[in-house]
Specification:
Order of helices and strands: EEHHHHHH
Helix content: 40-55%
Structural class: mainly alpha
Number of domains: 1
Oligomer: single chain
Strand order of the largest sheet: 1-2
Shape: extended
């Protein structure tokens, strides 16, 4: 039996915030993921979805982003932003999907990275 003096207390500095109505645990601000961590599944899913949307638009299934957004049940702004993931540099896509290298930027920032030149994208995405 342990005495009250023998109790070990572990403090993990996490914050709980609501995102989309669900609680989400946020790590401390100075947290850096380990080197062996794989790619975030949300990023991989978003890239796959963006490529699917791009193919459907190129096939003529939808003429505008607004039509696509209505068909998939999302806002036009969200679809427009995430559709940009289909235009990332081949080097970035290869490192994220095949090598599963973790991105140094969030999914939100990654969407805007497609506006950069293909030479600048890998440096900004992984450094």
């Amino acid at each position: 039996m342990t005495k009250p003096d023998d109790t070990i207390r572990i403090l993990i500095p996490l914050k709980v915030r609501k995102k989309n109505g669900r609680p989400k645990i946020l790590p401390p601000a100075n947290y850096r993921p380990s080197e062996d961590q794989t790619q975030d599944p949300h990023i991989l899913r978003a890239i796959g979805r963006a490529w699917g949307w791009r193919r459907r638009m190129e096939a003529g299934e939808f003429a505008t982003i607004q039509e696509l957004a209505e068909a998939v049940g999302l806002t036009e702004r969200h679809v427009s932003r995430q559709l940009q993931l289909a235009y990332l540099a081949p080097e970035v896509l290869k490192r994220m999907t095949c090598i599963r290298e973790a991105s140094a930027v969030s999914l939100y920032d990654l969407c805007f990275l497609a506006g950069e030149t293909w030479q600048e994208q890998p440096e900004r995405a992984f450094n």
